[in-house]
Amino acid sequence: MIPDKAPKEDVFHGSEDLKRNAHVPSFEKYKELYIQSVENPAEFWGAVAKDFFWKSQHTGRFLDYNFDVTKGEIFVKCMEGATTNICYNLLDLNVHERKLGDKVAFFWEGNEPGDELTVTYRELLQMVCQFSNVLKSQGVKKGDRVSIYMPMVVELVVAMLACVRIGAVHSIVFAGFSAESLCERIMDSQCSLLITADGFYRGEKLINLKLLADEALQKCRDKGFLIQTCIVLKHLSTDPEALVSSHSPPAKRPCPDLEVPWNPDVDLCWHKLMKGASDECEPEWCESEDPLFILYTSGSTGKPKGVLHTVSGYMLYTATTFKLVFDHQPDDIYWCTADIGWITGHSYVTYGPLANGATSILFEGLPTYPDVSRMWDIVDKYHVTKFYTAPTAIRLLMKFGNEPVQKYKRKSLKVLGTVGEPINPEAWLWYYSVVGEKRCPVVDTFWQTETGGHVLTPLPAATPLKPGSATFPFFGVVPAILNESGEELEGPSEGYLVFKQPWPGVMRTVYGNHQRFETTYFKKFPGYYVTGDGCSRDKDGYYWITGRIDDMLNVSGHLLSTAEVESALVEHKAVAEAAAVGRPHPVKGESLYCFVTLKDGLIFNQTLEAELKKQVREKIGAIATPDYIQNAPGLPKTRSGKIMRRVLRKIACNEKDLGDISTLADASVVDQLFQNRCCSAV
């Protein structure tokens, strides 16, 4: 599985200084620790657990599980019997035991340059305790679900940590998602309360978040589900009370057009509630396997899955992956550009960094606003040492050449990271050579919402690097590659990527639907966790992710379900049938190419195309807006009626070699679809 010696070709190493001080300083040390983590996980993870506070110790096996559906219910349990509180370990422990109260937890950088804020660990603890008391005053208790729909402000971190301090379960919804998506997630997790903001700027664009939140709550009411309370942060407000009591300053840019609707029966002002709240709040001690949070990810059936993570295992895993993958050192300034609405923001903006007492950048803006040098300006401003971003952002900035990067020094950078999708070698080499000046190792991390943290990744000083490879497994992770028959392939091979045993941070279930959890991840190959991704392994044992095998798309590092997009399209009164496929995109990785069959007598035109794009945007969010919509009088189907998406992908890419299409019920539709291809999709 792991080669005896590190390969000597196609390799890129970090500086000698980094190697001298690294937590895992060599390939030999990596291999030694890896073998221990797999053969004796209790010893390996038990040593990690000693760095944290436990109100009571675990009883029984450290890590217990069943991955085989033929042998009973699927389960994973870590440190069963132990009790702790993750907020206590992230804040109280750092302030009171590690004496880091005056250390900066976050440098907040707003959308507008110069809109900034510094928050120490002590200040963060005080705000979290205050908001914990606010939640308790609203009747929120252990086990309740709380929906959070906020921009990238400090109060978002405060809200999520306040939930976990009192044992409530947060469900964060990305602020770029639509009212329909928010409604669906609130109802699925039966949330008792919503936390949102008035609005925010995303580059030049003003987002009226409160309007979307109100629309979502109305949709919930229409479906018979009532949320009694919505707490509103006045982020863009010029309300003097908001200015006095909020840590996040309002955006510098005036927003006279922002109308904030207010329902006194439901809406409560964040700032008024915080004003009278005590800054002392005892943590609720939770069992190791108590729910920590629910985060929704797209499912191949179209209905998003509520991925459930639990307290102790997730804490241990995110803390350890952060520490080792980024080789965290006490004086680091770390910046992950992800939004907290995604799993990367949960694990590597909030939980992992704070568990290590790290100083992080919290960024509200865009990499191209107000100009394409914004990221490198921030790197120099705060002397960022570890930088973690998406291949989409790297490819976008590559288009503007080297000059916007090279006009800034970037001398502080030591480790670069990528996340969200496989990175193409060309973008990897630009990132390594131009951004990192060939002195910063690139940690190209593979993981999922479901895995909780990195599962295939290089380690900065220990692993020789190959551009575009996810490299080797993290500690405790045992990958395998299977063929269609479920047989494990040895040596250089390509097939389904699976994992043979759990690690502490893996998801525990799909919220409210354990059967779906078992069917999605364990039914196809009993005894294995099935990632849904294809993978190849080269002669040196390096793993390379080849992309999704199921009907999923990876657009700008975010997973979208083709079924979800198709469902949004067919809700339009003009559409009889729809199919969505991915098409390679030089910046986003994949773009969305949709085929629609209209109802009899209707004509496809630009007006209808605009309506359909708007419909998808409103149902799912802007990120799911189709790049291309093609009129399709007929779709390629088998005799049993199944749409052959493989053929549609070929048509979207204008590739005439279709392979075997003998099972098509009507092959003539293929020629028609090629003739009707979108003109701009060359």
What's the tally of helices?
A: 21
The proportion of strand residues reads 15-25%
CATH superfamily of the largest domain: ANL, N-terminal domain
> What is the CA-atom radius of gyration, in angstroms?
25 Å
Name the average pLDDT: 91
Q: Any low-confidence stretches, pLDDT <50, length ≥5?
A: none
Structural class: alpha/beta
Principal-axes geometry comes out as globular
Residues in helix, %: 25-40%
- What's the architecture of the largest domain, going by CATH? 3-Layer(aba) Sandwich
CATH class identity of the largest domain: Alpha Beta
Separation, N- and C-terminal Cα atoms: 42 Å
Q: How many E-type strands?
A: 30
Structural domain count: 3
* Main sheet specs: 8 strands, mixed
Strand arrangement, major sheet: 12-11-8-6-7-14-15-23
Instruction: Give me the CATH fold name of the largest domain.
Output: Rossmann fold
Put the structure in a nutshell:
The protein is an alpha/beta fold and 682 residues long.
Q: Explain this structure to me?
A:
The protein is an alpha/beta fold. It is 31% helix and 21% strand. The protein has 21 helices and 30 strands. Strands 12-11-8-6-7-14-15-23 form an 8-stranded mixed β-sheet, with helices on both faces. A 7-stranded mixed β-sheet has the order 5-4-17-16-18-19-20, sandwiched between helices. A hairpin with a 6-residue loop joins strand 4 (104-109) and strand 5.
Give the SSE layout.
Blueprint: H1 16-21, H2 27-39, H3 41-49, E1 63-66, E2 75-78, E3 83-84, H4 86-97, E4 104-109, E5 116-120, H5 121-137, E6 145-149, H6 154-165, E7 169-172, H7 179-188, E8 193-197, E9 200-202, E10 205-207, H8 209-222, E11 229-233, H9 240-245, E12 267-269, H10 270-275, E13 286-287, E14 291-297, E15 305-310, H11 311-325, E16 333-336, H12 343-355, E17 359-363, H13 374-382, E18 386-389, H14 391-398, H15 403-406, E19 415-418, H16 425-435, E20 442-444, E21 479-482, E22 493-499, E23 509-510, H17 514-521, E24 529-537, E25 543-548, E26 552-555, E27 558-561, H18 562-570, E28 575-585, E29 589-598, H19 606-619, E30 628-631, H20 645-652, H21 668-675
Parallel strand pairs: 4-17, 6-7, 6-8, 7-14, 8-11, 11-12, 16-17, 16-18, 18-19, 19-20, 29-30
Antiparallel strand pairs: 1-2, 3-13, 4-5, 9-10, 14-15, 15-23, 21-22, 22-24, 24-25, 26-27, 28-29
Helix pairs in contact: 2-3, 4-5, 5-6, 7-8, 11-12, 14-16
